[in-house]
Amino acid sequence: MIHIKDLRASIEGKEILKGLNLDIKPGEVHAIMGPNGAGKSTLGYVLSGRDGYEVEGGSVEFKGQDLLDMEVEDRAQAGLFLAFQYPVEIPGVSNMEFMKESVNAIRLARGEEALSATDFLKKAKAACQQVDLPLAFLKRGVNEGFSGGEKKRNEIMQMILLEPSLCILDESDSGLDVDALQVVANGVNSQRDGKRSFIVVTHYQRLLDYIEPDYVHILADGKIVKSGDASLAKEVEKTGYAWLGAKAEEADA
Amino acid sequence: MSQWLNQVIDRASSRMASGDDWLNPVRSNALHQLQTQAWPGRRTEAWRYTSLHPVEALAGRAANESVNVSIDSDSFAVPGLDSVDILFVNGELRTELAQLDVPAGVHISLLSAPGDAARTVVGQVFTQVKPERHLFGLVNDVMATEGLIVDVDAGVKVTRAIRVINLVTDGTESHNRVLVRVGDEAEVTVIEHGAGSAASMNTAFAEYQLGTKAKLEHYRFALHGGDAIHIGGSHFKMGESSNLNSTLVGYGSQLSRLDVDIEHAAEHAYAKFNNIYLLAENEHFDLHSTIEHAMPNGTTEENARGIVGDNAKAVFNGRIHIHRDAQKTLAELNNRNLLLSRRGQINTKPELEIYADDVQCAHGATVAEIDDEALYYMLTRGISRSKALVMLNFGFIQELVEQMPNEALRNWLQPQLRERFVNMEVK
Amino acid sequence: MSEQIEQAISRKYDAGFVSEIESDTFAAGLDESVIERISAMKNEPEWMLEWRLKAYRAWLKMEEPEWAHVDYPKMDYQAISYYSAPKSMKDKPQSLDEVDPELLRTYEKLGIPLHEQEMLAGVAVDAVFDSVSVVTTFRAKLEEAGVIFCPISEAIQKYPDLVKKYIGSVVPRGDNYFAALNSAVFTDGSFVYIPKGTRCPMELSTYFRINELNTGQFERTLIVAEEGSYVSYLEGCTAPQRDENQLHAAVVELVAMDNAEIKYSTVQNWYPGDENGKGGIYNFVTKRGIAETNAKISWTQVETGSAITWKYPSCILKGDNSVGEFYSVALTRGRQQADTGTKMIHMGKNTRSTIISKGISAGNSSNAYRGLVRMGPNADGARNFTECDSLLIGDTCAAHTFPYIESRNPSAIVEHEATTSKVSDDQLFLCRQRGLNPEKAVSMIVNGFCKEVFKELPMEFAVEAGKLLEISLEGSVG
Description:
The complex is a heterotrimer.
Chain A: E1 2-11, E2 14-24, E3 29-33, H1 40-48, E4 53-62, E5 65-66, H2 72-77, E6 80-83, E7 90-94, H3 95-109, H4 117-130, H5 136-139, E8 141-142, H6 148-162, E9 166-170, H7 178-190, E10 197-202, E11 215-220, E12 223-228, H8 230-239, H9 243-252
Parallel strand pairs in A: 3-10, 3-11, 6-9, 9-10
Antiparallel strand pairs in A: 1-2, 1-4, 4-5, 7-8, 11-12
Helix pairs in contact in A: 3-4, 4-6, 6-7
Chain B: H1 3-18, H2 24-36, H3 53-56, E1 83-89, E2 92-93, E3 106-110, H4 116-125, H5 135-143, E4 148-152, E5 161-167, E6 172-182, E7 187-196, E8 200-210, E9 215-224, E10 228-238, E11 243-250, E12 255-264, E13 270-279, E14 284-293, E15 299-308, E16 313-322, E17 330-339, E18 345-354, E19 360-367, H6 372-379, H7 385-402, H8 407-426
Parallel strand pairs in B: 1-5, 4-6, 5-7, 6-8, 7-9, 8-10, 9-11, 10-12, 11-13, 12-14, 13-15, 14-16, 15-17, 16-18, 17-19
Antiparallel strand pairs in B: 1-2, 3-4
Helix pairs in contact in B: 1-2, 2-5, 6-7, 7-8
Chain C: H1 3-9, E1 23-25, H2 32-41, H3 46-60, E2 84-86, H4 101-109, E3 123-129, E4 132-136, H5 139-144, E5 148-151, H6 152-158, H7 160-166, H8 177-185, E6 190-194, E7 203-209, E8 220-225, E9 230-238, E10 245-248, E11 251-256, E12 261-268, E13 280-291, E14 296-303, E15 308-311, E16 314-317, E17 323-332, E18 337-346, E19 352-362, E20 366-375, E21 383-393, E22 398-407, E23 413-422, H9 425-433, H10 438-454, H11 459-472
Parallel strand pairs in C: 3-7, 6-8, 7-9, 8-11, 9-12, 10-13, 11-13, 12-14, 13-15, 13-16, 14-17, 15-18, 16-18, 17-19, 18-20, 19-21, 20-22, 21-23
Antiparallel strand pairs in C: 1-2, 3-4, 5-6
Helix pairs in contact in C: 1-10, 2-3, 3-8, 6-7, 10-11
């Protein structure tokens, strides 16, 4: 699905990703954990092509294409989806209008026909129900006045609607209570079909109780310093990230 | 002094000399003011960006009679709107007031033939709310013979909207006046609906007096275009703890100029004023708003948003004036503009004039500022950059439309605005 | 409104002394013969006199502007003397030793020693007293670098081609009422020329002093920065405490050629008049710069003085990628009135401008920001950001904001924000509870409010400006 090779990226001259390697096959769920400031969110922004995030080196191949060479919307149309940690509010543009535009742009890019208004509405309603989002939210401005939890659910609702190949969930658990967490996790799990891949970025192990990863990677100081299976997350839960400092020093010595 | 204005003064003088208009004493005061006021030019601050040439060019032209003009009522129909409609065509009443199904507690009458109660309203409202500095307001004072009076009794909560429709047709000159008194603790919705694109000259001024705890939902639609000249104003005097929610929508025309004044004449009043202008072709739209906080503890929130395409020109002047005694005032004004064309123009001036220290006042104005984060978010959802810009741009108008309390009006206005906008974008 | 704040903002004007110097002063009045005499006193070439007379004739046809938010009685332009110079300056002293010691003492008392060895290293000073330049320091050192820094009266004689080429090129003779008057009667001022590719080795500074009674000061400053050059120029002003109003109508023109940068800073401390509004300087000034391609003009001003300030240092961003900046602190108290701001005229592509204006009003004063941002039809990708903040101290003062925004380019972005705040009794209480006296507390709050502007001043001036504000806010809290 995606091959990230020696990826280096910076913001305003400051290097954040310092040679990151990651291979994800179709259907796999990879969790990326790490301390604050490790570059977890940066990874999602770089892969989605956000302005201001300069790629300094390395390569990313997504479904056989050079991802780094593509525009933001082309990446999305190719099937890459980023669920934001802090989704922005867009007053005046309704959620419905927004998603309809989005779904059809992606469908057209895949060579499919645009959905009719009725078909779209049907799908949108189903997606909302799946994440427990009242239908009234479709009429409201995108994320406008939504609570933190509602914004996160709105992100998962969009993911369900857009049917991407690779989903990057950026701290989709932050600020959620257990019930909301379960809703988000169920939404994600419903989309696991053996073909779709996921990168689950999280600070805590908690989310991984609900979304079971195939692999867990520890990201520290812009690199993946340790990889393992789901048990690695449990280990982190117990020991925290403090040991990373010692490890890094050992590695340098 | 302009020839056009001299003609107005002559016509008014001779009418007042011959007639027995009961308002002559008030009108003659306005006439006197008119005789002494200078004709605005480029150096007149209030007309800095709007030329009155189109009005001057009317001098010497005889106005058409409008008696037999037929009107297509579809042109102003708003589906689903529960309203009492009063139609004026070229300043002449076309509705049988007696046939109207007027809600209890609401009294509608004409300036030319008021009952005793209405006379009291006129005494309190006519020229009492609108500031004297508006030259065309004075013209309206002497020329508007067929005004409408709306009086809402204290405590009455009216659910049906009162809609005054002012249509203009080719070659005419007309003057409309609306006087509204909203009694203490009364609630009412008033819609001033103006339209017409034919070459014509129309002034339309409205004065509103809000009693203690009165609540007014107000709309002014200035949906003109083409060669129409439309100059008018809506003026509000806020009673204690009264509440105003006003939305103004302007399409501009050869010359469109509106003045809105909101005076906090008592404490604890709340005024919300949104306005939208969407201009294309050669349309010119000039909105001057003045918020006077004369008393403490008042709140005003004003939002003005405009999109300008083609050769159109937008002028916005938003003044907030906090008087010495108006401590604890909250007043905010936000003006955002988008210019879509290299031939268009936007001139905006938000003004703060502050004489009290314990207040929270702010204003902001932007031209062509796009939220980069919102744009990026839309791109990550696969929407093309150009499409995303259109959605964001229209979204910022739509945001104000959505704040209109009346659903029927929202549903009627939204597609109209969208169509205008899309046509502008296509060019 | 607490009494402490009231007291904390009252202040003494400590540059208010009068120097006992014998002067040659023209009788009050203005006509063509007065202009001819000024021109003759300065030994000017014929073209300069012609230029002045044209300006005068234009001025006669103009009307005094009334749009500013200031209020003052009509001025009698025939009651002003248009030329005054210390007698001792008649023979043009060749060195500092020949200058009247009383003159030198005046500048020493103002903290501007004119002996080079006593001066702040790295600052060259042109000292203008009433209508003439007394001395310009460090000229030799500047000449080595090819920099010309001299009184404009001298430049008209020594570098006529340069002056002729640039004078009036930024502020035309008939630009506005006060600029026209200045063009007719200007007496002295500074001329600066920075050659191509040169970074001026020191800060240049002009210190203006009005001394004589009933005299107007009409100085004219012209700064030309050739391609790729850089100069930082500072300007300071004071005047004696007198009961009569005095007129100061200056013109400053800046020319920044391609890739050049001019930084112009002002600390204006003209006598503001007493607390009842008696006396004080009327400061009606036209300052404007033209920035060519990639050039940058930065205005920084700290305005604490004058009875009336009417001043809009502006940038014409003519060249692509040129940059204009305006940083301003205007403090008014007593009966002072200020109407000040800037104009940013964006003509070139990708031009950028930043406006940061901090207005502080106290007492019975009135403080207005007036600004214009214009995006021309060719200003593709141009950007402006404006921030106007007003701080009100007390409930008898006034603060106003009048920003004009005109855009004719769909790709240009303009952002304007304005806020108002006050020094609250709560803030004051907190500071006092932490052991600060009210004066210190107010000055701290005000200083914090102005920080964004102060950091733009050259080091030497930043200290002076901070002190000036502190003095301005100093009172007699018992």
